[in-house]
Structures are given as C-alpha cells and as structure tokens.
Design goal:
Layout: H1 2-55, E1 59-64, E2 69-72, H2 74-80, H3 84-87, H4 98-114, E3 121-129, E4 135-147, E5 150-159, H5 161-191
Antiparallel strand pairs: 1-2, 1-5, 3-4, 4-5
C-alpha cells in the first residue's frame, strides 16, 4: 500500500525532475548557441568596421562629448601627421586653428555638462591644422549618437586642398575667358560694319 504509493510518487517526481532538467538543458544549449551566434556577428561587424576604417584615405575620428579622441584611423595619421597613439585620449581641438580652440572647448564643456543629446548629421567645409601647424581646407561629415546615456561624435574628414586649388584655377580660367570675350566683343562693336 503506502510504500508502493510512496515509490510511485518518487518515480513520478524523478521523471518530472528529469524532464525539467532535459528542458533546462535544451534552453541552456539554445541560449549558448544564441550567445555564440551574437558574439560571432559582433566580431564580424567589428572586423568589417576595422577593415573599412583602417583602409579609408579619409580621417575617421570618434570622440566623446568633450571631444576626447576615442578612436582614429590611419587616414587621420596621414592627413594630420599625428600617430594614433598621440591622439587617443587627447582633445580633438588640436585639429582646430589656435584662435578658435578656447571658444570651441568652452562650447564642448557646456554641452557635456548640459546632459543634452544633440542629434547631428551634417557635412561642412572648414579649416583644420596639421601637427606641423599648417592650415588646410577640409570637408567633413559629423554624426552623433547616444549610447548608455553618453554622447559620441564621429567625424569623417577629407583634405580638399587639391579640389580648392582646382576650383581656383577654374575660376581664373573663367575670368580670363570672360576678359577675352569682353575684349573681342568691344573690338567687334567698335569696328561696326567695317569688318566683313
């Protein structure tokens, strides 16, 4: 009687425990597979980013809200003349002309202290400064994002010295062409009907 019922209940509880353990193992295996897949996807994403960023001729710079350089690529080294090691952890105001550095730093401190997040996505032209102090024209795209209640900025920057030089040459050529056109127009107007 009672011993038999107790044995039956123990076998039933043992079966239920085994079923729960099997189900738990299945969930654990599924979770482990999911974590492994997500880890692999993250590693692949990081490898893609690194391959693109490190081989870009453009400077790619990531900073925090204060402008502290958290990442920069080889393009940054080539354009500005600083090594990546020199820039990491430093303020990105070193790229700005000396006369605006203090004002820009004050703006960044004020922004960081405000706790606001500004969504920025813009492409601009400006003047930047190389490590040797020479100023040069740049075109840059600036993007911002927020993660874990912190603001970050990515700048993709291109030296446009050659483009500006070509634009200037084109402007001079156009002006010379305009002067020639004006000269010949004046000659033909002065000659009137005397030229056949």
């Amino acid at each position: 009687g009672r011993l038999s019922d107790l044995g039956q209940r123990l076998r039933q509880e043992l079966r239920e425990k085994q079923l729960m353990e099997e189900e738990l193992k299945l969930h654990r295996d599924n979770l482990e597979e999911l974590v492994n897949n997500k880890t692999r996807e993250l590693q692949e994403s990081q490898a893609r980013f690194k391959a693109i960023a490190e081989n870009s001729p453009d400077a790619i710079i990531i900073t925090d809200a204060l402008g502290i350089v958290l990442y920069c690529n080889r393009g940054t080294e080539k354009i500005f003349g600083y090594s990546q090691e020199e820039l990491l952890g430093q303020s990105s105001i070193v790229f700005l002309p000396p006369q605006i550095r203090e004002t820009e730093l004050s703006k960044r401190v004020q922004y960081a202290q405000s706790g606001e997040h500004l969504s920025i996505s813009a492409t601009l032209e400006s003047i930047m400064v190389r490590k040797d102090g020479t100023e040069f024209p740049v075109e840059f795209s600036l993007y911002s994002w927020e993660m874990n209640n912190r603001s970050f900025f990515a700048t993709i920057l291109r030296d446009i010295t050659e483009r500006k030089r070509a634009e200037e040459e084109l402007r001079h050529a156009y002006e010379a062409l305009q002067r020639s056109r004006d000269f010949f127009e004046n000659v033909f107007n002065a000659a009137g009907d005397g030229i056949y």
